[in-house]
């Protein structure tokens, strides 16, 4: 069975990757005597589960137990999220990662399985880095007072004078939105009545052209953007866009909505280190945190299902318990160096793919700039109307700006890709030493990475490690398999060491 994937429909349309993947895998199949009975191709992101052809492939494997070889170009074509990896691992299928020269099966050594798991985490981490860089770009726009997302009802997204997307009042809906605030400010209308009045005035959703609903009306009335400011990532920014109403009107509307003045800035919520990580071993409810006297943090069973006998526990005690559990993860220097080398070598292919993507984006950007230059000359020579020039120029500037953003994102995310992968390993082997000195957020992030399940009962913490880190525990505490002795100076099990 053959599987191939590209991340976007645009890549598939340009023939960027699919044909090359299929040709490589089919040549491998022919060379090794495999007959390909089915071929599945996905043209969508693998960051989320639910890919159409991936699901169809799993269905075929269930229905055909005799098909037990899966051929794919490399790890990140097969999956970029942990759930898909775990799902496929439940099938007794031999996975051939052609470009990586790796074959994985139930009989594979622990070192191969562990390194494969790390590659899955690295692939997921790479996607997360891309998302993080995109979020950074949006945050930077917010700091400049530019609304960084889709325009709300009453505004339109346009390209501003400096090539950045900004929002401007929609000539059709902006006057209606302003009147909606004025109507509600009087206190004479309930939300339901106000919504009906707005519908009569012609207020509709931009894409569907359907009349607005009551929940949308409530969201609009709470949204500061109409008064010239906006909230983004929990912070308040003064916008550079044109407001539709005055600040006084917005504040009066808030008083009508809830009977009190709205605060300008919301307080940051208290962050606890182990929130969302522990369940009660007695009843399965969540173990939640609360602060006493503004200083001491205690955890206890939420008691959602029944009254629970488990006593309250201090956060410091839980931190010590987690630190002790993390000490079960062991990786000696020899194994660490081996896996680090494999990660860095496997990254060479990822770098080549990145260069191809950057070259394609730069070519697109240059082509769009040439179009803009020619369009300007045609405008000066009178070959096109000013209206056509403005319309086409806005479209092409937007496309070129998108190319430039993607180029910046690839540059920034790639810089940390390999180092982040090695850092994941180092975190796993040193977690028990550094855990207690980390911040609340760092502890939570480390446990979310390493731990899949943890329970607290009778003053004892039980932890199940997320794969592939659970293999580190097996290598440290499992009985060594029969075979050659451990190499001098190595502290691991022989099945981890290179042949």
Span from first to last CA?
29 Å
CATH homologous superfamily identity of one domain: Resolvase, N-terminal catalytic domain
Estimated share of beta-strand residues: 5-15%
CATH architecture of one domain: 3-Layer(aba) Sandwich
Sheet having the most strands: 5 strands, mixed
Q: Which structural class do the helices and strands define?
A: alpha/beta
Number of strands: 15
CATH topology of one domain: Rossmann fold
- Measured as a percent range, the helix fraction is 40-55%
How many helical stretches? Answer: 16
Radius of gyration: 28 Å
Highest CATH level, the class of one domain: Alpha Beta
Could you say which overall geometry the principal axes of the C-alpha atoms support? globular
Verbal overview:
The protein is of the alpha/beta class. Among the domains are: about 1-110, Resolvase, N-terminal catalytic domain (Rossmann fold, 3-Layer(aba) Sandwich); about 155-260, Alpha-Beta Complex (Hect, E3 ligase catalytic domain fold), CATH 3.90.1750; about 280-320, no CATH class. The chain is about 50% helix and about 15% strand. The protein contains 16 helices and 15 strands. The strands form 5 sheets. Strands 2-1-3-4-5 form a 5-stranded mixed β-sheet, with helices on both faces. A 3-stranded mixed β-sheet has the order 10-14-15. α7 runs antiparallel to α8 (about 190-200) and α7 (about 175-185) packs across α10. The model is unreliable at about 10-15, about 45-50, about 260-270 and about 475-499 (pLDDT under 50).
